Amino acid sequence: MSDLYRSALSSRISxxxxxxxxxxxxxxxxxxxxxxxxxxxxxxxxxxPTRSPYARQQSGGASSTTPNPRFAPIxxxxxxxxxxxxxxxxxxxxxxxxxxxxxxxxxxxxVIFCHxxxxxxxxxxxxxxxxxxxxxxxxxxxxxxxxxxxxxTTSQHADNEDLSIEVLIEDFVELVRALFPKPEDAPTFIxxxxxxxxxxxxxxxxxxxxxxYAVGGVAVLxxxxxxxxxxxxxxxQLLNSRPDGFPSIERAIEWHVSTDTIRNPDSARVSIPGCVxxxxxxxxxxxxxxxxxxxxxxxxxxxxTSWFEGLSTSFLAVKAARLLVLAxxxxxxxxxxxxxxxxxxQLEVVPNVGHILHEDDPRKLAEIIVDFWRxxxxxxxxxxxxxxx
Length: 389
Hints:
Residues 1-70 are annotated as: Disordered. The two termini are 33 Å apart. β1 (82-88) and β2 (93-100) form a beta hairpin. Mean pLDDT is 83; it is low at 1-37, 39-63 and 379-384. This protein has helices at 2-12, 30-36, 126-135, 165-179, 196-210, 225-239, 249-258, 265-271, 304-308, 311-317, 334-341, 357-360, 362-376; strands spanning 82-88, 93-100, 110-115, 140-145, 154-155, 188-194, 215-221, 245-246, 276-278, 291-293, 321-326, 346-349. The protein has one domain: Rossmann fold. It is α/β, with parallel strands linked by helices.
């Protein structure tokens, strides 16, 4: 729920697998090609910039109607190797998936599978994916999806509006099955989920393990059940300060950076184009706005409680290594505090970031996750994984 979650807390505390068909690059349908080829993803304005120190850029000229070139979208082609629409027929979904494969196939390889938070998209993990490839020398792959009602994922059914946790869990499980129909040929997964996505991966992991998929670990990013539930009553008030739309994609990116919602301009320039969509030119009810949210957060409010209620229990019950990464040294809820004292999970705190920590400092998070993989995936005989009893 973007930095709204953290703001509310502050107020209280003073390429794809070979069996997945790729789009034909010679397809005459230009619209389809533009939607599915990674070189044509939202923000195809050249290669990604060199890695920045993630210093905040001031918005400068925020009142101007002229798009600021410092906030121009950039392509995701330098961050992932492939982007495809994957048919998940059992769920009536055409799911957008971004993928950089590992060097080694099957169980000899590891894929970090990322699930974004509410209102964002798979491109939220673009910079993180690039850093993981660098730090792991390509031995770790990274896959990131757009959930239903997010990014470029589309649905054939009216219940696409349903974002309850049970629906999101089944979507995730069935997507994994569509991508890797044979568990014995699938890679080992490290599941990573931010906020809402953390709840999805924690609860989906036992279901996937029951289907014989190998999960080496689960990492939840900046989601603590107790704090999240305490924050929910304040969310509607905080949403009142969130724009309903923007005159351009550049202005959408600029808003996220200037408000510190995303503190890394490079990441915002690649991820935010996946969070907004063009208004119908015939729609004159929106005034000067030309871009609207793909997923307005206010429209998800009826599902917030389901996302976080029971998260701590689900996380601690996962039969794999467990990692909780927080964007600040807030108190854990009682269940997690007891679990930490019992050594049931690894806890890491990333300094100088906001709620969208994987975008604010993707290098630091990549270091944490790659180290987590090395400690728990390449197990030394006789040495237990983090969280093993």
